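Lab manual, section 2.4: Encoding a predicted structure.

Procedure: take the sequence of the chain (438 residues), apply the prediction step described in section 2.3, and record the output as structure tokens. A sample record is shown.
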Amino acid sequence: MNNAVAGFSKLTKEEKINWIANEYFANPAEAVATIKQYWNSDAKLQQLHDEFIENTISNFYLPMGIAPNFLINGKYYSVPMVIEESSVVAAAAKSAKFWSTRGGFKATVLNTEKIGQVHFLFKGNSTKLEQFFNTIKESLIASTESITKNMQKRGGGITSLELRNKTAELENYFQLHATFETKDSMGANFINSCLEQFAKTLKEEAQNYADFNETESDITVVMSILSNYVPNCIVRVEVSCEVSALAEKKIENPQEFAEKLIQAVRIAEIEPFRAVTHNKGIMNGVDSVVLATGNDFRAVEAGVHAYASRSGQYSSLSYAKIENGIFTFWMEIPLALGTVGGLTSLHPLVKMALEILGKPSAQELMQIVAVVGLAQNFAALRSLTTTGIQEGHMKMHINNILNQFQTTSEERKIIKTHFENNSISHSAVVEFIEKLRK
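Recorded output:
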């Protein structure tokens, strides 16, 4: 394709698909068949999915699995996880079972504050701007009353509003920095609506403020938007037990294992190259539950990684120690999640996932998500410091290789039996398949 397409969004779904198939595929009929193969047979349900985004042509499937036996604050959960990566669900389930016999996971929501900002330019005397803000602060908040009244009934709303002077970093740049409590909703639409009203009232009040000159009264609002960095929306999760209780089949010397795991965590604390992969493992667990429950995993990822850099250097999100013979492994992460609104009330599988979790509040979901992240991290560190990461991962990944080569059920039995006692790698499996077929 060498030319731009005009009016693509105005085409019907069928026309979009035919255009894509004819423009990009040598066999258009085969491409159309593949696209339609993933449609839901229920037309009403398919329409629901079509309307989640724009220019929809099909559905993109990801597996939804269950990790059972998560004991969190004395209550058992079976946790839905949506992810494409081999071994993640298995690792989470294994870690959950391990800790369920050692007291389970403890989780505490430390706070739930969300943040939004109106970014604006003001050319003039900053002292006069501060006086102006103090004069109109109550009016700013009052102007959002029609937006906040229902949230206030649920115990939420605007919790603070302040003026911040950022001119040392950027000329003429100021912001209204607001904090919110959004209860069981993630609150993005609520926060953004409040911020846009703040911006409108700010400009109107500035035009009528007697102490401003003409330049000062002409405030330029650059943008009004929530922040996905929520360093005051934090959940803490931990596991602990006597060092001796860590013993199991592949942990014959629990003291040595614990000390080695602590060193692995400390390496991630001081070495950014390791910290990124270390935290990616945590996010394997976090993202999979965030996706399953219809929340925004991109927002969560951005906020968590910013939090990992809060000291000025990217570092480990988790920590470990031995104190008085007790091994403790813990983590604090920011999570802005919701259990009402958005996909939570629309997507059938999201509704099912929340029902499996016992219809949790937003705070309870924060705890569950963070626990799965910590469990995933423990599973990865246990593998890394004992057998190595590839042994377990490749056992799970072998199915992908077998599917890639379209092996028969008889071939699968032979291949899996062979690799029960032989090292698994992609090349080794491919080589064995080729030998088997000769």
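Check your result against the sample. The first strand starts at residue 64 and ends at 72.
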